[in-house]
Amino acid sequence: MNKVALITGSTSGIGLGIAKHFAKEGYNIMFHGLEDNGEEIAKSIGEEYKITTSFSNANMLQSEAIENLVQQTIETLGTIHVLINNAGIQFVSPIEEFPNTKYENIIAVNMNAAFYASKAAWPYMKSQKFGRIINISSVHGLRASEYKTAYVAAKHGVIGMTKVLALEGANHNITCNAICPGYVKTPLVEGQIKDQAKAHQMSKEEVVEKVMLKKQAVKEFVPLKAIADMALLLAKDSSATITGTSFALDGGWSAQ
After folding, report:
1. Which candidate in 103, 124, 151, 183 is catalytic?
2. 228 belongs to a structural domain
3. Is the separation of the CB atoms in 58 and 37 below 8 Å?
4. Which domain does 166 fall in, by range?
5. Is 183 noted as a catalytic residue in this protein?
6. What CATH number does residue 18 fall under?
7. Residue pLDDT, tens place only, 165-209
8. Number of folded domains that form the chain
């Protein structure tokens, strides 16, 4: 029987990269995202890799919608073996200008949603004595940068949550780990490059070199494949003793 993975925010960026790798390995996948063509993305990947897929555009700001997303996964695909909490949003601003609603939404989508999804999946994982929860945090879950109060707070929070779920899941073969990427060239980061270029009055190339990758020892964007390979490793049956850990895939940023 194919294993089932629910990946939030999987119709673009890091989530889509992970989803394609899991599809290649034969996982049936519940796709989730806000892209208008999300249904088609899920369907085409299903056809390409001969797996079963489904799609939801559940609102990650609402606990009930997230609970329904987990329920839909189980009803459509039979169960849930792997939950990848990947959906995220970003906003950059000095604290005194940071809109309250932006702060609240970032905490809700980047941190609270991981709690609601994990809580909803937990009884199913517990009853089948197998569960792999993988939280996509960030190097900003380990280190801070200016003007990212909400994002840094949320990503640090996710790492704390990861540790607690690892402890609670230990007797039930439920593991929980966090992946902490540095900069990955996703649509979200492409948008940031544009905004930073405008703010700093620099070219896009200068922003990449002097702002974004400044703190990384390896001056390259983290490849999607590295993140997907790590997620696949953490999802394996043989990874039962890998739990409560944060894996920095950050070009050496956190080594400093």
Report:
1. 151
2. yes
3. no
4. 4-182+223-255
5. no
6. 3.40.50.720
7. 999 999 999 999 999 999 998 877 888 888 888 878 999 899 998
8. 1
